[in-house]
Amino acid sequence: MAAAAKTFDTRRQRFSGVTEEPDKVLPPLPPIIQTNTTSSLYEAVKPISHLVANLQNKVAYALEKCKNPKDDLTCDESAAIYLYTLQWTEGENSFYTMFNRASRNENRTQLIPYYNYLNLFLLAMNKLPAVQHRIWRGENIDLKVKYEQEQIPPAPEEVAQSADAAGTRGTLSYSNSSQINDVHILWLDPNISKSQENVKTQEKLKELYPSYYKSFEKSDELEKFIEQNQRCSVILVTGGQIGRQIVPKIHDLLQVISLIVYCMDKEKNEKWSGHYRKVKGVVNRSDDMIKQVEEEYAQLVEEQKQQKQQQQVTESTKKSIR
After folding, report:
1. Whose CB among 4, 79, 179, 259 lies 3.0–4.6 Å from 279's, allowing a Cys bridge?
2. Residue-wise pLDDT tens digits, 192-211
3. CATH class for the region spanning 183-304
């Protein structure tokens, strides 16, 4: 019985690691050079093979399990995700344990050996379909000392409600995705004002979104705007050539919801943009671009309204429990 309990405790570590999460903002990571080229999983884990026990055997097992991947993943990309989910035998640190430990370490250089794997992992994750749901997680521990009651972090991340408020021994934690944010329509293109068609298209967007449309000719100006407006949601229109540069840099930012590539060579830009799940369309006509923006905006606003309604129901339920 004791052995079984110990095994269960080992296996549940991936679900109860909330106490190991940092309670302060960590220093930024050294630059990660992301590419659109998929390397083999064997090559990606070479720099960390000495850090994780039995890693090569687990990689072989993951590749064997992922011979027929879905969602347009390669075998190596699918196996990179599968490897993260594997539980090592008792007494050994699983890969996800070592990877999470490095990513949470205040010494950011601890994560550098994992960069090749991380790049492959992110390529795989970017291909998966986007899903928005409220996620609940039960914790059989008291987190009142870690989080103040009713405290909501400024970004959509995990928060916890105290056990007495939930009326249970454990603690319910959830993603705070119900906050309704301002939706900004941004357009990045160095030639944005150099054609009559672009000027007319901008006028139309300003008419549709008078308070929330903004254009940029330089990538650094766009990045600065997004950095300064972390509570907003962004629908970004980008040119083809500059899109190749900016999309990998901002794709995984929480504020960036949808990306639209507006270009001349649609077929050429569909090839590289297909690796990024937030790219919702590649268009070469202004009318199509505006239509795509309107659809993305309407969908985002509707989703935020539904999330707000769900939050109100949750708050009402919590009050009735108290």
Report:
1. 259
2. 988 899 999 999 999 999 88
3. alpha beta
